[in-house]
Design a protein that fits this description.
With about 850 residues, this protein is α+β, with helices and mostly antiparallel strands. The chain folds into three domains: about 150 residues, Copper type II, ascorbate-dependent monooxygenase, N-terminal domain (Jelly Rolls, Sandwich); about 160 residues, Jelly Rolls; about 300 residues, TolB, C-terminal domain (Neuraminidase), CATH 2.120.10. Helix content is about 15%, strand content about 30%. It has nine helices and 49 strands. Strands 1, 2, 4, 8, 10, 11, 14, 17, 20 and 21 form a ten-stranded mixed β-sheet that branches. It has a five-stranded antiparallel β-sheet with strand order 6-3-9-5-7, with no helix packed on it. The longest helix has about 50 residues. The protein is globular, with a radius of gyration of 32 Å.
């Protein structure tokens, strides 16, 4: 009897340890708790922001670490890492904030916060990479509630690994007693897979213009929905001060169903959808913002400052996990005619009481238009995010353009037919012998370039379609194509700007004096780039390597105005409007802005087109010291390339994809073939196809979003691909000569079912492999018990107890305080410990896996020394 009890005890202890090993919150969070920042006792009841809620659930407390804002309208941010490596799901939010001190809170998810400090001023940004809003709280607004079975996916291979909390402190009169604030939110997370995954759909107008004094102006957005069904449960509206009402609808078979309607002057949190709304394939999502231009004396455009406007309608939805898409956007009006039938309620402003208006916008009066610093301060506070469609930019490795025989590639552009235009230097090279100290070209005796310097290529197969520019240029540099297909180019040796017709041998317009550098209205000094306004035809020239200015000309080439000055080297920090080589231009017609790659200052500066007024700059540590080129895509994406790092610096040379409205980095990219040496220009199209030209590598790379590349690989497999361009590219796949269903939704469902089956088989296999050693161990113990009882009689029972004690002692390990299968198996020669101690209940934070060093050493290996900086 005693032997049976002993065996049952062993069995109980073994399986207890298995359960704890699979999901013990204490063991999972032990290392996290030891490294987490300690929070003020006023913020938390304990110093543990992670609280176990059972075997699979836990709570994560995200609180301000005891802060006292110094002035009203202060925005403070702090970050908390996800305490687990594997996938988890946020299923609930519990806010901790007082309406007396906090105006609103936003919670973002991302992979790299903008700062590593305990907290920071949100002027520095929220995240360095792409970020998305998970939660919003505003005073006098209901908190976000997720339906049962719905969760935001975080961690793992695709989810964000950090939470960033942004708190807006409106009126700081409540802080007269100097108390410390610990506002924040507690998240309820679980490791249990959720059947429904939450996501965000952003509808945003990008080209609305509000005339001064106009009483009613509508901004309409509409896109066809081309994905699996989604269910809408919350919405949020956002405009600036001219917005009167924002409404969102689902349109199905001509019937308009209200998603939500709200005044943007009320607290801008997420409001629940009153009546459940589902969206199916081929439905239309539509939204309207109603503005009034009364009181304004100039046109108001969509933009990021307080004097600009925004028209955003956020939709929080959930989808079945197997079909889930985390983020989607709509930035166009696919069917303007349909808005004739929009319900009348969409045009009726929602009255807002004056006290509610103050609470929605902060504590005091509107900012005066003349206070520019205040406007810029408010612009940086805008929490709006252009939520991307979960894409990543990668090189198109099958594109043959990389093998073209080119000279130094200085400029790239896309013509009206979306063909790629390349501007290169043929057999000429810009080196240290090209110019004297007065910037006069010294190699005039070589004559002009005898090759065609302007090449027009098919963007799909790199075949040459057209070429020109022979015997015209000495050192090509910048390139732009206007809406009529004319080429605008600069030559740094000639110090001139040219307008070339696509079928003309002689230039249509020449600005500047050949071979004569200068700084007056009729001379340039190594001009770098040109941009042409598609609406007005105005011409903007960045001038240049030896001047530091932007010059505006009329369409016929008459001087209009200029702005900019050189950077004072003594001050150490460049001021707004100062340049150190304005190297590349990007015209932003959506926002009526001109952005400049301020190369040697490592930043992007943006100005108002009409006046040259500085609006803001974009600068990130990952840019390094140089930003070479920029390109804007309508809809809110800004692309850029930087320069090689200086010796001893670590910033990689790479491409960047940024949210133009916020300036935050959404993605980075590098080539797979060859490597960037000095990427000199970048151009992007609306479908996220990107071309990069390198002046040292003498090459042009093609990049595309992973969505698009996946579509191309499907086509190679014998599947027809049809792209429907609404708000996004949609694939309809039909197997050739196949009797099976042509429904793309059904086909993808089958693929997901196969994936689920594979996951189930993997889980069963792993579980079986873990249980087999336990069963074998128990069999050995039972055999020993039976054998010794048979051979030794009564003495055998005592010897068995001793043997069992030794085995249990080894199972307990060094601590002797509990069963530890990780240490037990690790003690056997040849058995890998990797991954096992992480699941054990003790000792996991005291020993380092032997394999860890190899992986990290490989990832952190130093790159080859970069070449010295060049003026090319």
């Amino acid at each position: 009897m005693a032997g049976s009890v002993n065996n049952l005890l062993i069995l109980f202890l073994v399986f207890q340890n298995i359960c704890l090993g699979f999901r013990s919150p204490l063991s999972v969070f032990k290392r996290y708790e030891d490294t987490t920042r300690s929070l003020s006792s006023q913020c938390l009841g304990s110093d543990r922001p992670v609280i176990s809620l059972g075997l699979s659930d836990f709570a994560l407390d995200i609180r301000m670490p005891g802060v006292t804002p110094k002035q009203s309208d202060t925005y403070l941010c702090m970050s908390v890492p996800l305490p687990v490596d594997d996938e988890a799901y946020v299923v609930d939010f519990k806010p901790y904030a007082s309406m007396d001190t906090v105006h609103h809170m936003l919670l973002f998810g991302c992979n790299e916060p903008s700062s590593t400090e305990n907290y920071w001023d949100c002027d520095e940004g929220t995240c360095k990479d792409k970020s998305n809003i998970l939660y919003a709280w505003a005073r006098n607004a209901p908190p976000t509630r997720l339906p049962k079975g719905v969760g935001f996916r975080v961690g793992g291979e695709t989810g964000g690994r950090y939470f960033v909390l942004q708190v807006h402190y409106g009126d700081i009169s409540a802080f007269r007693d100097k108390h410390k604030d610990c506002s924040g939110v507690t998240l309820h997370l679980t490791h249990q897979k959720q059947p429904l995954i939450a996501g965000m759909y952003l509808m945003m107008s990008v080209n609305t213009v509000i005339p001064p004094g106009e009483k009613v102006v509508d901004a309409d957005i509409a896109c066809h929905y081309k994905r699996f069904p989604m269910h809408l449960f919350a919405y949020r509206v956002h405009t600036h001060r001219l917005g009167k009402v924002v409404s969102g609808y689902r349109v199905r078979n001509g019937q308009w169903t209200l998603i939500g309607r709200q005044s943007p002057q009320l607290p801008q949190a997420f409001y629940p959808v009153e009546h459940p709304v589902d969206v199916s394939y081929d439905d239309i999502l539509a939204a309207r913002c109603v503005f009034s231009g009364e009181g304004r004396t100039t046109e108001t455009h969509i933009g990021g400052t307080a004097n600009d406007e925004m028209c955003n309608f956020y939709i929080m939805y959930y989808m079945e996990a197997k079909h889930a898409v985390s983020y989607m956007t709509c930035t166009q009006n696919a069917n303007p005619e349909m808005f004739r039938n929009i319900p009348q309620e969409a045009n009726i402003p929602i009255p807002v009481k004056s006290d509610m208006l103050k609470m929605a916008h902060g504590h005091h009066e509107e900012t005066k238009d003349t206070d520019k610093s205040s406007l810029l301060h408010q612009a940086k506070k805008e929490e709006e995010e252009i939520l991307d469609q979960d894409f990543h930019i990668e090189e198109v490795v099958e594109w043959p353009g990389l093998d073209l025989k080119l000279g130094q590639v200085s400029g790239l552009a896309l013509d009206p037919e979306n063909n790629l235009v390349v501007f290169h230097r043929g057999d000429h090279v810009w080196d240290e012998n090209s110019f004297d100290s007065k910037f006069v070209y010294q190699q005039r005796g070589l004559g002009p370039i005898e090759q065609n310097t302007v090449l027009v290529l098919n963007p799909s197969n790199a075949k040459l379609l057209h070429s020109m520019g022979k015997s015209l240029f000495y050192l090509p540099h910048g390139l732009s194509v206007d809406k009529n297909g004319n080429y605008w180019v600069t030559d740094v040796a000639l110090h001139q700007v040219f307008k070339l017709g696509p079928d003309k041998k002689e230039p249509l317009l020449i600005l500047g004096v050949a071979m004569q550098p200068g700084s007056d209205r009729s001379h340039f000094c190594q001009p770098t780039d040109v941009a042409v306004d598609p609406i007005t035809g105005s011409v903007y020239v960045s001038d240049g390597y030896c001047n530091s200015r932007i010059i505006q000309f009329s369409p016929s080439g008459l001087y209009v105005m200029q702005w900019g000055e050189g950077t004072e080297t003594s001050s150490g920090k460049a001021k707004p409007g100062q340049f150190r080589i304005p190297h590349s231009l990007a015209l932003i017609p959506d926002f009526s802005q001109l952005c400049v790659a301020d190369r040697e200052n490592g930043r992007i500066q943006c100005f108002r087109l009409e006046t040259g007024e500085f609006l803001r700059d974009i600068k990130h540590e990952s840019f390094g010291r140089e930003v070479f080129a920029i390109s804007y895509v309508p809809g809110g994406l800004l692309f850029a390339v930087n320069g090689m790092p200086y010796p001893g610096e670590a910033e990689a040379v790479q491409g960047f994809v940024m949210n133009f409205s916020t300036g935050e980095i959404m993605d980075t990219f590098i080539p797979l073939r060859k490597r960037f040496e000095m990427p000199h220009d970048v151009i992007a199209s609306e479908d996220k196809t990107v071309f990069v030209g390198d002046v040292h590598a003498r090459a042009v790379w093609k990049f595309a979003s992973t969505e698009k590349m996946e579509h191309r690989s499907v086509k190679k497999a014998g599947i027809e691909v049809q792209e429907i361009k609404e708000s996004e590219t949609v694939v309809e796949a039909r197997l050739k000569n196949s009797p099976e269903s042509t429904d793309p939704v059904k086909k993808q469902e089958k693929q997901h079912l196969v994936g689920q089956a594979s996951t189930g088989v993997s889980f069963v296999l792993i579980t079986t492999l873990l249980i087999i050693p336990v069963v074998v161990l128990l069999a050995i113990l039972v055999f020993i018990r039976w054998r010794k009882t048979t051979v030794y009689g009564a003495d055998g029972e005592h010897k068995l107890d001793s043997s069992s004690g030794r085995i249990l002692g080894r199972l307990r390990g060094k601590g002797g305080g509990g069963l530890n299968l990780g240490n037990f198996f690790a003690s056997h020669k040849g058995y890998s410990r990797k991954g096992f101690d992480r699941l054990s209940t003790e000792g996991s934070d005291q020993e380092k896996d032997e394999d860890d060093g190899t992986d990290s050493e490989e990832e952190c290996s130093a790159p080859p020394p970069p070449p010295a900086p060049s003026s090319s």
